[in-house]
Amino acid sequence: MANVGNQLPTQAVSKPPSGKHGNVLPLWGNEKTMNLNPMILTNVLSSPYFKVQLYELKTYHEVVDEIYFKVTHIEPWEKGSRKTAGQTGMCGGVRGVGTGGIVSTAFCLLYKLFTLKLTRKQLMGLITHTDSPYIRALGFMYIRYTQPPTDLLDWYDGFLDDEEMPIVQQVNW
């Protein structure tokens, strides 16, 4: 984000190539952090799963297979790994502030997808995938974190009635 004089900060947006859509996706926001919560990103980058197992995966198809076999929920933290007892105010598990936990496989894979710099065709492949609702969910999460807010409805339109989409029980981001 840039802050010039007394102007409000602006979001960096990389523009897609000319043409109706092109295969290159625009990127909204921070080009390094994927707009993830700093605590989640720190835990992803320091995760042995991300640094060792996911480092070995080099292709889109390998990552999609990993999602299929390893993702069992789409919350940011592994169940029971985040301690928020005794915290009050903003640190009481609200808005993702507080002590971290073990970052979920889903969020490690979400960031791995980001490092691959998905194309429009690959992202469409995720959100239309028929083998797993988690593959589709991570595709929609990728859209949520990386695409310009003005484009979100265009991406989500036609998918809002997906009955197989996983339900998030509680999210403390």
From TrEMBL:
Keywords: mRNA processing, mRNA splicing, Nucleus, Spliceosome. GO terms for biological process: mRNA splicing, via spliceosome. Residues 1-21 are annotated as: Disordered. It is found in: Nucleus. It comes from the Eukaryota. Coiled coil: none annotated. Residues 1-13 have a biased composition (Polar residues). GO terms for cellular component: spliceosomal complex. Pfam families: PRP38. Belongs to the PRP38 family. May be required for pre-mRNA splicing. PANTHER family: PRE-MRNA-SPLICING FACTOR 38A-RELATED. This is Pre-mRNA-splicing factor 38B. It comes from Oryzias latipes.
